[in-house]
């Protein structure tokens, strides 16, 4: 259900009426795609219960999930915002390096392992959030920990 | 008239086959070499496929982790717009009218232009 902003010929017209006061306010994430991608596994690690709760709510609401799941949605947003805030507090340098690399490399994770490793270590040490890819075959090194990335276009970024 | 006879000791053997030196290795060696190159290539190809699978799994999960966040934001925006349009309708018409004979939510296909341009 992708909502498109109504576009008219001359200008973009957006109805800016805020939500009514009886719905609690929540500040939106406000991060662009590269930082979100960089932090996605940490968001997943901390916010999994909230995320699952929200998605279940949406599934079970039979088409009215937009209104019925506002509460769960706020929890999801707050949790993700808390993760981003914590990363910004404790691992800002590594985080910035990694998402800027993603931004410069078409958001391909395998081009930026060199900056991903220190970020993962820092976040694991300070926030105790670990990047884990569910469903990866056991007994193999997970792809984000491999020394050599076959598809990376430069060995300088490995 | 005397008849021509073969020379004494017979004719020399006729050379009917070219006697060029054989170049290169025996064919079996080439076969083995090609098989080796092919095996190596397929092995690397297989490694590439495995790695690509893992990379796509990683990408998939990074999106799965992000979907609820993005969806929640989107939903709030949709609810905000819907409530605003309902309020506007009530203010203009004095009553809420139903476009469809149904309670199901139907995403509006029109947009009311706000009085002041926002962007």
From TrEMBL, chain A:
Location of the protein in the cell: Mitochondrion inner membrane
UniProt KW Transmembrane helix keyword: no
GO terms for cellular component: mitochondrial inner membrane
Biological process (GO) annotations? mitochondrial electron transport, NADH to ubiquinone
InterPro entries of this UniProt entry?
NDUFA8 (IPR016680)
Q: Which domain of life is it from?
A: Eukaryota
Main location as per UniProt: mitochondrion
Keywords assigned by UniProt, alphabetized: Disulfide bond, Electron transport, Membrane, Mitochondrion, Mitochondrion inner membrane, Repeat, Respiratory chain, Transport
**What job does the chain carry out?**
Accessory subunit of the mitochondrial membrane respiratory chain NADH dehydrogenase (Complex I), that is believed not to be involved in catalysis. Complex I functions in the transfer of electrons from NADH to the respiratory chain. The immediate electron acceptor for the enzyme is believed to be ubiquinone.
Protein's UniProt name: NADH-ubiquinone oxidoreductase
Automatic annotation (TrEMBL), chain B:
Cellular component aspect of the GO annotation: mitochondrial inner membrane; respiratory chain complex I
Compartments, as annotated in UniProt:
Mitochondrion inner membrane
Q: How does it sit in the membrane?
A: Single-pass membrane protein
Q: Where are the transmembrane segments?
A: 28-46
Record has Coiled coil as a keyword: no
Specify where it is mainly localized.
mitochondrion
Q: Which UniProt keywords apply?
A: Electron transport, Membrane, Mitochondrion, Mitochondrion inner membrane, Respiratory chain, Transmembrane, Transmembrane helix, Transport
Key word Chloroplast present: no
Q: Name the domain of life.
A: Eukaryota
Task: Show the InterPro entries listed in the entry.
Answer: GRIM-19
One Pfam family in the UniProt entry: GRIM-19
Q: Member of which family?
A: Belongs to the complex I NDUFA13 subunit family.
Q: What does this protein do?
A: Complex I functions in the transfer of electrons from NADH to the respiratory chain. Accessory subunit of the mitochondrial membrane respiratory chain NADH dehydrogenase (Complex I), that is believed not to be involved in catalysis.
What is the official name of this protein in its record?
NADH dehydrogenase [ubiquinone] 1 alpha subcomplex subunit 13
Q: Which organism is it from?
A: Acrodontium crateriforme
